[in-house]
Fold this protein.
Amino acid sequence: MIKAILVFNNHGKPRLSKFYQYFDESLQQQIIKETFQLVSKRDDNVCNFLEGGSLIGGSDYKLIYRHYATLYFVFCVDSSESELGILDLIQVFVETLDKCFENVCELDLIFHADAVHHILSELVMGGMVLQTNMNDIMARIEEQNKLVKQEAGISAAPARAVSAVKSMNIPQQIKDIKLPDLPQAIKDLKF
Amino acid sequence: MNSEHGFNPAFNMATIRQAFTEAVERVRMPTPTRLRDLIRQIRAARTAAEERAVVNKECAYIRSTFREEDSVWRCRNIAKLLYIHMLGYPAHFGQLECLKLTASTRFTDKRIGYLGAMLLLDERQDVHLLITNCLKNDLNSSTQFVVGLALCTLGAIASPEMARDLASEVERLMKSPNTYIRKKATLCAFRVIRRVPELMEIFLPATRSLLSEKNHGILITGVTLITEMCENSSDTLMHFKKDSGNREIVPNLVRILKNLILGGYSPEHDVSGVSDPFLQVKILRLLRILGHNDPDASEAMNDILAQVATNTETSKNVGNTILYETVLSIMDIRSEGGLRVLAVNILGRFLLNSDKNIRYVALNTLLRTVHADTSAVQRHRTTILECLKDPDVSIRRRAMELSFALINAQNIRTMTKELLLFLEKADAEFKAQCSSGMILAAERYSPTARWHLDTQLSVLIAAGNYVRDDVVSSTIQLVSSSPVSEQTYITNRFWESLQVANHCEDKQPLLQVAVWAIGEYGDLFMYGSNEDEFERPTESDLIAVYHKFLTSAQVSTTSKQYALVSLAKLSTRLQQCVEEIQALITSFGSHLNVDLQQRGVEFTQLFGNYEQLRPALLEKMPAMQISRISSQNGESSGSFDDNSPEWNGTEGSGNALIESNINTMGENTNILLDLLGSTDLSAGASDLVVATDLSNAVHKKNTRNANDIAPVSNNQDLLDLLDLDMSAPALSATTTTLGGGGDHSSNMNNMLAGLDLGGFGGLDSTAGTGGQGRISSLPTNGNDLANMLGGLGGVGGGGGGLIDGNGGNLLGDLNPTAASNNVTVSPPQNAPKLTALDKNGLLVELVPVIGNDCMKIFMTTTNKSDNTLEQYLFKAAVQRSFNLQMLPPSGYILPPGGVITQEIQVVATSNAVLRMRLRIQYAIDGQQLVEETEVSGFPQQQPSTSE
């Protein structure tokens, strides 16, 4: 079972954290920090498996990670998962992100953190692999996004109206109303 | 009062004006920042403080919108909060808002709401109850994505209660015609079973059709679910194997697998040239479980495993994933010999692969298979030893473990040589494990005694301070049981290594063993036969070295203790320098460290009034027998790991059998000592043993540095006691009659029992001054007391089973006849009885009795099982509107048929109905168990008037 999926950048800034086992908020942050410290000091030419994270689970658990440009993708798994299989899974996850965002980069993950979560939840559910067929995942995500857009079209209308009213700055708008300069207009009148 | 209804123009004008301004404010309130803008702001922050300021401002704003029940922007606010949560700021205050979002009718809201629920929800009950209702509604939704969201959330955060409540819904959805819902429901069932294994039954019928699916999503989740079920219970495993007629599971899986590898290219599931490796891996894993110890099932899968092993393309990681899984399956089932050879050859190829990951899994697999097929793995020994030098920590660790598994009587010499090289260069984290492993291997396979001794010495030198305590004690044990010639030899070697090792503070374990040996065999070392022609030091040189250790600030207290005892021993072994030794020992009489000071004082006595006792007391220790069972004191020593050998020795002069459980718990010692509240206790307890049995005491594991913080008053108490004991007239007679109150016989000898009682006095007074000593589990008669104390003393005060509980119930009574301070409370007979727990032979009953100002609840625990329950701890919690006070229990150990009683007093401060949450902890055979339960049905009581 996958216990946690963490994505952070080369400086340890979290970009995605998803825990499939309950941990306290502060413990989650500690885990992320510890994981970053363990993973970041490893060269790129060593293996992608790491034991010895003390916070999640103990000796039965492994960190399996891949490093892409500025991002680390770390899966924390127990011994019932195939190490090499998880590496493939990370690859599938990243490729799916790449397809969804068209050349994914760190900024996409920052500005669409919720979308990344939605994609992940079609791939892994409750710590187990749900679906690995990228096309299927993409199709489902698109259908759901369409649903969201539809709702934004119909029912969001009142909300938009309210927001439009709210953001209206009436005194300023009154000032901004341009009336023709009367004397000039009179002058322009040519008889 | 009147003004609200009557005409009051001023008041009305004011309210109208206020309402008006509020309305204007509401319209003028700006729309909340968009998530995108917030992220920009946070990213623009140059320092951490700046970022924190931005986040705090936004959090404050979000909180205020939550308060105002702003439902229009709730979705946006939660989205921002989730981003803030990801950055590591507290966001749990959004939990309830998430629930409100999930109750919305819009998919957009639900999507964010459930995402927030998955990320933010903790296991608090009330919130879980709310979300269970939302989930139930959404599981019945007509939109597949809403159902999907609900299933996904349930799969991620299901608590046992939720699992029970929603299991039937999940089961229904597993039969849904929609594949998207079905696969999610299947994984959800997996989670439900994980949380509540009893619910497995209801999902069994629905699993039948899972394997005849075409959709890979359903196949993979189905295989996951079946794997979980099979691992969970052997009955279910049999059920799947024998499932009627043509639906047998193994052929079914084989068929799916065959389709995958021979079915040709399918673009949908292709991952770099391999068809759905994830499904293949899952199936191989399930096959492994099905074929384990089952010749028929193994027979049915032999062919397909061979096909997978030969047909898989291995140029990419994906192919190797499958091969790796295949090898594991082949090794785990009853496969044909040829297939096993194939598997080991694949591993051999893996080991030589340039990809580090592949090498890592190869080592991993070899480690798993080494017990099944050692000779096959031995063939790769040189490669494995090469891996010890790999720059990658993960690979080195695996290689080290594998190397230990490969050691046997034939290759022990070469393997040890390699491992010693590794040990010298290894990182700190490896040294402890590696040295202990080498000692174990040497113990099992050493070809000669001398080689064994040399290896121990080399390990001590190479691993330095990282050596675990068990290595020290096992080395001492080994030397003690060696023949005299070897003892002389190794003592000389120890001396040499002390001379060579330029920084003894880095190698304290070596120092400890060396001084022990020199003290013990000083006569042989200085004046015995010198066959190996070692260079011997003069007596004054030797004393100078001791002087250096004993005065060095870097040498630990434990090492100094060893050195001091060793020095005392040397005083009877050496011929000239006795005065120097005496001077050095006397100087410790005023040492800052209590323990050393005490030793100093005690030994000084042996140079003064009791001079005639010294040679007899400081006799050589008898050879220690090696046994790894600590059964004698097992009852009192709760949590000892199995590297705590028990040493039985007969005291040379005293003719009495002295049993002392010498414990080598390493780090555990300190933890247990902390539990004692005052670390000084251990020093007291063990030193009392020192006074009587010097030779055994040499190996006491005392506190390391913790003694320094003992309060002064305690020292005084202990010293008083010691003075008393030391000056007891009985001491001048044979050692066995020493001691004050020991007129009760026990299976320890009288002397120890008497002294230990004295020691308990020390314990008591310390606990009294410390005010928080938590000492419990009082035995009811003197014999047991002495026994337990024997354990306590021998362990350096660490008897895990002894210490726990929350009573201020100290060992007030030293008199062994009155030592039972059982706080037996007995409830009135006619009171109603509530059974709180009746499980595994443990019966917990509560008898509430309404008193004048409080309700008294009498708890009675009865052990109906055949096991002895130790460290029994009963905890109770009540609602806020009650005050709870628990009196100390009558005991902490439940023998079969035993009873523990405890009184609880509850004072009500309001009219609420009392409910009580109970947590019951106990240990069977050192294994900790926890039961939790909730009790209600207490009689109503009047709120206390004093509140």
